[in-house]
Design brief:
Layout: H1 3-8, H2 10-22, H3 25-32, H4 36-50, E1 55-58, E2 61-64, H5 66-89, E3 96-102, H6 104-121, E4 125-131, E5 145-149, H7 153-156, E6 162-169, E7 172-176, H8 177-183, E8 196-199, H9 207-214, E9 225-228, H10 231-239, E10 244-247, H11 253-258, E11 261-263, E12 273-279, H12 286-300
Parallel strand pairs: 3-4, 3-5, 8-9, 8-10
Antiparallel strand pairs: 1-2, 5-12, 6-12, 7-10, 7-11
Helix pairs in contact: 2-3, 2-4, 2-5, 3-4
């Protein structure tokens, strides 16, 4: 394969690197958003151009031949250098769009009230925001950055994406201040006489584990649940005096500062909420993305 042929067929090397990384044509097809048949056809074309066998089938896997392994090591390094070069070309250019996804509660209660301070500092960066409780596919949904929370973010992040930890916060029982004044001098067992607001899928931040840590017994027979599907709805309920919910304080910092809400007991949940930035390090918007994540990280340092 001549150098001219290489440039004409750079797409073949991109597909080859992906198939070699996964040892699978089907997984490569999923990442590249083409059919498995297209991957197979491109690999036959590349093998024909090189006049050598690159893959050997073993069960459902496509294993690299000795020649394939040599090409993979060089293709991986070469494509990485190309991506770094493209990123450096755009390093000075931070103006433009940036699409972000996170949970409904974080966007509505924390990000949007502070976004004006970012846009005042960087008026030429257009922030597009969408909320999702799911781990959306960034490439398929044209998302530059996901701000994700929880104990399983790293395990759910694909290996081709960066998952940067940027801190964690504790979860506390929070309620309207007038209710807190009435209950705070009583032991935590009194909670079972009140409405407890919980997410339909609380994950590791559930009332059962908090009650176990606080020495509250009898929750298995408790009947006064109010179930919601987002923390912002739960906080809206308790702001009106409807029961008690578990939440990280930074989501309702303004209400805590104003005295509308209070932390009922200074007893944190045994599980903290860890925070992560998830993104593609080879994104052409990586410089713009870094400006935003640096700003957000600085803002989050002031929260409890």
């Amino acid at each position: 394969m001549t150098s001219n042929t290489v440039f004409k067929n750079i797409n073949l090397l991109v597909t080859f690197e992906c198939a070699a990384r996964y040892n699978s044509y089907s997984l490569a097809a999923q990442e590249l958003y083409i059919s498995q048949a297209a991957v197979s056809q491109q690999m036959r074309q590349l093998e024909s151009l090189l006049n050598t066998r690159l893959f050997v089938r073993k069960g459902k896997q496509m294993l690299l031949s000795q020649q394939g392994e040599i090409l993979y090591q060089h293709a991986k390094r070469g494509l990485s250098v190309l991506n770094q070069g493209i990123s450096q070309l755009q390093e000075e250019e931070i103006d433009g769009e940036l699409t972000i996804t996170s949970t409904q509660a974080f966007i509505a209660l924390w990000l949007m009230p502070r976004l004006q301070s970012f846009t005042e500092r960087y008026p030429n960066i257009q922030i597009n925001v969408s909320s999702s409780a799911e781990f959306v596919d960034l490439k398929q949904n044209h998302v530059d950055l996901a701000i994700r929370f929880g104990a399983n973010v790293q395990s759910k992040t694909p290996s081709n994406l960066v998952c940067d930890y940027f801190g964690e916060s504790s979860v506390y029982p929070i309620c309207a201040t007038h209710l807190a004044k009435r209950l705070s001098q009583q032991p935590p067992q009194v909670l079972l006489s009140q409405r407890l607001v919980t997410l339909e899928k609380p994950g590791p931040y559930d009332w059962h584990r908090w009650c176990e840590k606080a020495g509250v017994s009898g929750l298995e027979d408790y009947k006064l649940w109010t179930k919601v599907n987002s923390t912002d709805i739960a906080l809206s309920a308790v702001c009106s005096g409807h029961g008690i919910t578990l939440a990280v304080p930074y989501l309702c910092q303004r209400q805590l500062d104003s005295g509308e809400l209070s932390i009922l007991y200074d007893l944190p949940h045994p599980n903290t909420v860890k925070r992560y930035f998830v993104y593609d390090s080879n994104s052409p918007r990586v410089a713009r993305l870094k400006v935003f994540t640096d700003w957000l990280t600085k803002e989050m340092r002031t929260v409890r």
